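Fold this sequence, please.
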Amino acid sequence: AGIRGTLTALESPNASVTGQADIKTDASTFSVSASLADAALVLPEVTGPVRLMASADQDGDVWTWQADGGLEGTLIDLAGTATDLFGTPVIAASGTIAAEDLSKFAAIARRDIAGSIDIRLDGEVVADLSRADVSLNGVATDLITGIAEADRLLTGAVDITLDGAVDGETLTLRRALIEGRNVLLDASGALAPETGNLSASGRVAAASLLLEGAPDGPLGFASVASLEGRDWTFDLSADGPELSLAADGVALDPMGPAGAVEGRITANANDLSVFSGLARRPLTGALSVAAEGGVFFDLSSFGIKGTTTGRGLSIGQAEGDRL
């Protein structure tokens, strides 16, 4: 026994919505299809036809659902399950989200965006966000974000991975990866109250992609950090054209009113001439710096000591060069 019916809620040259339902105890089914001749009818910033189809089938406390549709040139194709809808719902989903031309959404984003994306999604989320497990994998091609430095890094095909989970107060980042011909960023870690760890590394094909006038050689970094109580211990290294840097120390209660950092740093520039374009003046020679100390973030107190060694220095200023 049950109730079965078909409902046409709207039918016009510009839009249509049709639904079907078969309602039975613990075994109901629903489906709906909708179309819009032009998205501009509801969103003036976007044009093109829109379609949507969705369905759900009940088996006791478990609903199996699927949905697909999108704007012309875009695709949303997802399927999954939903449980405990009248308690604390748990939603699981997997599928594909793709867009051939992101410039269609530039007006909504209020910036110049373009390129294409094709993303595979798998995940499960508790409605109260007490637990979640999400994995995204895909490719962005010739992505334009409206941020010049980012756009130079994201040319061509860029692989994207985001894999993480939330369980109560613990956040786990199994991996975050952005990898293309001009950029590599790779990170993982975990964070819980008063404990955590984070590691990250990256490389840019040319420092000049980030800073106008910087040298053309590659720029890379590697870092690790760990949280104990309220304090973060860190270790960082970086290398670039004729440049190396290393730093380690501890950030003391960085989110508190008396946040401070103490540690040491060494930097070596073997040939300053490669930085002449960045400095906008002729530079020559080599420079080494070593320093250690501490500083409060509000600059109310600090203490630093160090040494600087220069060899054959010329900074393009006559008085300075004579000294």
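Helices lie at 106-109, 148-153, 276-279, 318-322. The longest helix spans residues 148-153.
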